[in-house]
Amino acid sequence: MSTEAHTEIIVRPVRDVDAEALGRVHAQCWHETYDHLISKAALERISPRRMAELWTNWARQGDDFRMSAALVDGEIVGFVGSGPARDKDAPALRELYFIYLLDAYHGTGIGQKLFDAAVYESEPCYLWVADDNPRAHRFYQRNGFALDGESHTEPFLGEKLTEVRFVRP
Fold this sequence. Notes:
By secondary structure, the chain is an alpha+beta fold. It contains 5 helices and 7 strands.
């Protein structure tokens, strides 16, 4: 007889009470995602407490914002956020602001569930992503996005990060 562990995966809207857990996961995801792009010293300045403060504000935004958390067996392992476009030259009305998932859960389908909670099927949307993040690039391409040729270099944790824009018409 085999003993299979049943894992409960839930994607639900972010709640105010999630801020502390989201802050911890956000900080860890940044370490896992940007360690090859940003110096260790810059990454060490990430404060889970500061990230939690940001989440307290993000959780209270209006109906145009879709902020969701992914939970595995009751623990937050990832999150996503989208809302109104922020760029003057926005190629779509909706922007995917961020989607992060702890490395241990990559390839499980949770990232897709998070994406689907923030961007509806066939909904025009755009996003900015680090130019040196091939895994994310493949994920967005599978979801109908394509590079549109735009890029910018932004300050990130006191350093610079080059991002490219993906668009889904």
